[in-house]
Amino acid sequence: MRAIVAGGTGFIGRALIDELRDNEWEIVVLSRTPGKVAEVFGAGVIGMRWDNRDWPDILDKDTVIVNLAGESIAGGRWTEARKKRILESRVHAGQRIVEAVRLADSLPGALIQASAVGYYGIRESSTVDERNGPGEGFLAEVARQWEQSTAVLEEMGVRRAVIRTGVVLGDGGALKQMLPAFKLFMGGPPGSGLQGVSWIHMADEVGAIRFLMENGETSGIFNLTAPNPVQFRKFARLLGETLGRPYSLNAPAFALRFLFGEMADEVLLSGQLALPSRLQEAGYAFRFPELEAALADLLV
Ligand code: NDP
Predict the structure, then answer these.
(1) How far, in Å, is the centroid of ligand 1 from the Cα of 139?
(2) Nearest protein Cα to ligand 1, atom 47
(3) pLDDT tens digits for 165-189?
(4) Beta strands 159-165 and 45-49: pairing type?
(5) How much distance in Å is there from the Cα of 11 to the middle of ligand 1?
(6) Ligand 1 site, residue 85, Cβ cutoff 6 A
(7) Which of 132, 233, 220 is nearest to 188 (CA)?
(8) At what angle do helices 173-183 and 232-243 cross, to 10 degrees?
(9) Centroid of ligand 1 to alpha carbon of 240 (angstroms)
């Protein structure tokens, strides 16, 4: 089997490619800078530019496309230019995949399309699953258009699984950004701490993606989140305990708004409690369903 991983040089892509290589998948990475692919993965992983005219030729029923590409959402204050890049990088990646499939002689076996639990918008206390509709806000709109960018492939007969991912806990990403403050006894939940954190251990993120790639019966929307999401204050307490550095202070909302603007409201001060109902119904067994064990595995 062959995987074409768009955006495969990123945080999730690297871990996914390690998992797939261990399981005999042949890997092609679509990247803006294919030179980086050789640097990151060494020999054995092929890097291709998005505009390489040859890549539609390698599509066939034994090929699964995984689309992870997109400008980082938490990489800094959301200027108008940055918001445009966040949205357009995702929609354009989806459109280019659709164009390639149209040009190809054979259809791919499946597309795994990235999205995020931000789709559900700001939901304070009640849980959500795949049956819930879209919420409001910039991230919800990005997720809606991002998912929509490849929806036509379903009409063309391609199996498509959309992965609405939560906060991925691994060697990088959000956890890496939080650790320095906690290690200095200065970590704490942003704002009230009542907002939901729909987290997932990287082992389950890539385990679930591989499950969806290999399980030809699966299609539609899947929340990639652990079955036990928590409020941020519990997340901060468990993180502090795991590190042996109890937290004491909440980071005040006004200061976060001052530093990060709109991004603070949508990414730090609000969240969702998303449940992976469809993934569990499909038979995926989580390696890390509980946050304590996930943090201990990553940090101790
Ligand atoms: P990264 O930011 O680590 O990597 C994304 C990849 O996308 C990069 O390696 C890059 O590949 C490509 N990329 C970056 N900017 C652009 C751009 N402007 N135009 C086109 N391509 C670009 O993301 P993650 O691996 O953390 O996440 C993968 C996807 O999953 C992302 O879309 C993210 O939004 C989503 N997600 C991630 C979560 C997380 O906790 N990490 C949570 C929820 C969703 P290259 O430079 O090789 O072209």
Answers:
(1) 15
(2) 31
(3) 999 999 999 999 888 888 877 788 8
(4) unpaired
(5) 7
(6) yes
(7) 233
(8) 60
(9) 28
- Separation of CA 244 and ligand 1 centre (Å): 32
Per-residue tokens: 275: 């449940």
Atom nearest to 93 CA in ligand 1: 20
Tell me the domains of the chain and their CATH numbers.
2-299 (3.40.50.720)
Q: Which atom of ligand 1 is nearest to the CA of 174?
A: 40
Ligand 1 centre to CA of 81 (Å) is 17
Residue nearest to atom 16 of ligand 1 (CA): 71
Q: Are 147 and 119 in contact (CB under 8 A)?
A: yes
Secondary-structure breakdown of the chain: helix, strand, coil percentages, each rounded to the nearest 5: 45, 20, 35
Question: What is the pLDDT at residue 218?
Answer: 98
Between CA 60 and CA 110 the distance in angstroms is 10
End-to-end CA distance of the chain: 36
% of the chain beyond a pLDDT of 90: 79
Q: Ligand 1 within 6 A of 149 CB?
A: no
Tell me what pLDDT residue 133 has: 94
Query: Which of 68, 82, 141, when mutated, tests ligand 1's pocket best, judged by the most ligand atoms within 8 Å of its CB?
Result: 68
Q: Assign residue 185 a region: left if phi > 0, alpha if psi is -120 to 50, beta otherwise?
A: left
Distance in Å, CA 175 to ligand 1 centroid = 16
User: What is the dihedral sign for C-alpha 218, 220, 224, 226?
Assistant: negative
Residue type, 252: P
Sign of dihedral through CA atoms 273, 274, 276, 278?
A: positive
Q: What is the pLDDT of residues 249-291, one digit of tens each?
A: 788 888 788 778 888 888 888 899 999 999 999 999 999 999 9
Indicate if the pLDDT at residue 248 is higher than 80. no
The pairing of beta strand 110-116 with beta strand 63-67: parallel
Length of the chain: 300
